[in-house]
């Protein structure tokens, strides 16, 4: 299988990270694979050897011991090694899980760029609250600068993923998640939906481009000068199920991300405000929604599904 796949034109992008989060995840993949191989490889080799070595054949004169059932040395060996490996795996996984918590900011002297993300059927809407612009199926940010993604969904549950920069994280209606990533070099990176969400989910791909700071600033100015405004009516049309090409908008309605997060809370009812207690829909309209951490999501959705896989 490895030989056949090596002929494919696509690279193993998960194993070709271009950022600190992706690199740490690659290290974890390699470490866990090697530790598991310590158990799996000898077992597979011994399985074949034992079948061949103790096969029945004419003229065999070895002693036959049908009542043999215990050997202390073998018992200690095949129980001790897996226990040690599992203990090491547990320690490594806990350390990496804590270090790679998606809501944990990336330490940097550079100012973090914030991008708000809304998964729609079947496209991605990106809002730049500080720059005042919006895009569809395309994002741009400076290299060597941390990017804070605030994520929600105005459609079925989905999953946001830029494989070379870091692991995927779910987007869910009524919730605001947080993900920090960074690109260490300029380039265009593949982004996609990593969750089944309908007939055209495979078309939910986007380009994540890391550029120099000057190029990013120039692009923002260009979008503000040449793009059309995303109006409320325009968003309502965009929200309808469809496959879209890349688009750029010079502006978008104020508070659009917060409205998307809270739009499914019935008027006057008590909605779940992540990071705090239950608040009414009227209060939510007045108070910006703070993206939650994965701990918040785990506590509120533990019975349904983990909110984050691989990151």
TrEMBL record:
Residues 6-104 form the Cytochrome oxidase subunit II transmembrane region profile domain. Residues 300-311 have a biased composition (Polar residues). Residues 265-311 are annotated as: Disordered. The lineage of its organism: Bacteria, Bacillati, Bacillota, Bacilli, Bacillales. One of its GO terms (cellular component) is plasma membrane. It comes from Paenibacillus roseus. It catalyses: 2 a quinol + O2 = 2 a quinone + 2 H2O. Residues 110-222 form the Cytochrome oxidase subunit II copper A binding domain. This is Quinol oxidase subunit 2. The keyword Signal applies. InterPro entries: CcO_II, CcO_II-like_C, COX_ARM, Cupredoxin, CuRO_UO_II, Cyt_c_oxidase_su2_TM_dom, Cyt_c_oxidase_su2_TM_sf, Cyt_o_ubiquinol_oxidase_su2. The keyword Lipoprotein applies. The chain crosses the membrane at residues 28-55, 76-98. It is a multi-pass membrane protein. GO terms for molecular function: copper ion binding; cytochrome bo3 ubiquinol oxidase activity; cytochrome-c oxidase activity; oxidoreductase activity, acting on diphenols and related substances as donors, oxygen as acceptor. Gene3D superfamilies: 1.10.287.90, Cupredoxins - blue copper proteins. Keywords: Cell membrane, Electron transport, Lipoprotein, Membrane, Oxidoreductase, Palmitate, Respiratory chain, Signal, Transmembrane, Transmembrane helix, Transport. It is found in: Cell membrane. Belongs to the cytochrome c oxidase subunit 2 family. Catalyzes quinol oxidation with the concomitant reduction of oxygen to water. Subunit II transfers the electrons from a quinol to the binuclear center of the catalytic subunit I. It comes from the Bacteria.
């Amino acid at each position: 299988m490895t030989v056949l796949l090596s002929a494919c034109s696509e690279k193993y992008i998960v194993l070709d990270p271009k950022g600190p989060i992706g690199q740490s995840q690659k290290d974890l993949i390699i470490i866990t694979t090697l530790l598991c191989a310590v158990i799996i490889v000898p077992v597979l080799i011994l399985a074949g050897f034992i079948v061949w070595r103790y096969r029945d054949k004419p003229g065999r004169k070895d002693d036959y011991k049908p009542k043999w059932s215990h050997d202390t040395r073998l018992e200690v060996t095949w129980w001790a090694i897996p226990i040690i490996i599992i203990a090491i795996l547990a320690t490594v996984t806990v350390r990496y899980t804590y270090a790679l918590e998606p809501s944990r900011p990336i330490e940097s002297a550079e100012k973090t760029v914030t991008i708000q993300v809304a998964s729609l059927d079947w496209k991605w809407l990106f809002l730049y609250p500080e720059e005042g612009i919006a895009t569809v199926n395309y994002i741009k940010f400076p290299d060597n600068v941390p990017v804070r993604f605030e994520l929600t969904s105005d459609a079925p549950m989905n999953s946001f993923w830029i494989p070379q920069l870091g692991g995927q994280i779910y987007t869910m209606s009524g919730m605001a998640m947080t993900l920090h990533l960074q690109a260490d070099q300029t380039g265009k990176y593949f982004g996609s939906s990593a969750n089944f969400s309908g007939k055209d989910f495979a078309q939910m791909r986007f380009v994540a481009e890391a550029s120099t700071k000057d190029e990013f600033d120039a692009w923002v100015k260009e979008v503000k000068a040449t793009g059309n405004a995303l109006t409320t009516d325009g968003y309502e049309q965009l929200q309808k199920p469809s496959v879209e090409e890349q688009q750029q908008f010079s502006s978008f309605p104020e508070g659009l991300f917060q409205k998307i997060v809270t739009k499914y809370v019935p008027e006057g009812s008590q909605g779940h405000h992540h990071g705090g207690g239950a608040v009414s829909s009227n209060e939510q309209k007045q108070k910006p929604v703070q993206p939650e951490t994965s701990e918040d999501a785990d506590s509120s959705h533990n019975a349904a599904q983990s909110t984050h896989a691989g990151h």
